[in-house]
Amino acid sequence: MKNKKSMIVSILIVFLAIAISSALVYTQPSTPVDNVNQVQKAQVREVHQPLLDPPVLNLFADDIKIVAMGDSLTKGVGDPTGRGGYLRFLKKDLLHSGNFNSINITNLGVTGLRSDELIKRLDREKYREALTSADQIYITIGGNDLVKIMYNNIMSLTITPFMAETEPYGKRIETILKETRKINKAAPIFLIGMYNPFSKFFKDIDEMNTIVKTWDSESRSIVQQFDNITFIPIRDIFLDTSDNLLYEDNFHPNVDGYKRIATRVDTYVEQALDTSDE
């Protein structure tokens, strides 16, 4: 039992070190999500899944604006092209559905961002202006809230402070959703859940899985209080696979990880839009 606790502490120290180094050292190219032509193909060799079916032709397809905000998952850390991680694959999937004629993405992702910091950013003109005109809104947040707890308890780390922070975290999620809805009263909002990057290498340590599952459940329960807001789980994507879905830092998703997140998000978005049309 003592050895297990020691291993848990070691894992969480690694978790903290990776998060801090990613926030301080990792810099993404400044290429906008939609400005594909500025990325030289020789720099990164991308592997794309072949399209099984041709794009659907829809003469009544819409032009839409997507606003994505949150942490490094929105920023796209781990995507070597610097073009927005899951967002660039989601755009392709949504366009292929035939429901949209064109999609413009505004990426407000910030590496290292916590939920309390996102709440403050919602008062900024840049955020309010982008969100006001959004047709769809995507949010990733929470991972750095966990990192903060690790930092504050690094010398005597147990599962207790994470469980104690579950409800306050839920309150912050509620505030984010309420404030976002005040800014934009109509756009569907999609809150994307968290995942445990250590599940592949430390399968016998269940504490982090329990923490992420508990925080995800809290987010889901908050989302259920709102109309036109959807919670999208991604935790299982990284649990139920033997494939490597992590970037070389063993923390953020790699290209394949972002592709699978995009596929999951696309499924939930299509379901939500179909329901809203009924």
TrEMBL record:
**Residues covered by the SGNH hydrolase-type esterase domain:** 68-260
InterPro entries with a match to the protein in the record? Ester_Hydrolysis_Enzymes, SGNH_hydro, SGNH_hydro_sf
Q: Which GO terms describe its molecular function?
A: phosphatidylcholine lysophospholipase activity
Pfam family for this entry, one:
Lipase_GDSL_2
Record-linked CDD domains: SGNH_hydrolase_YpmR_like
Q: What is this protein called?
A: Lysophospholipase L1-like esterase
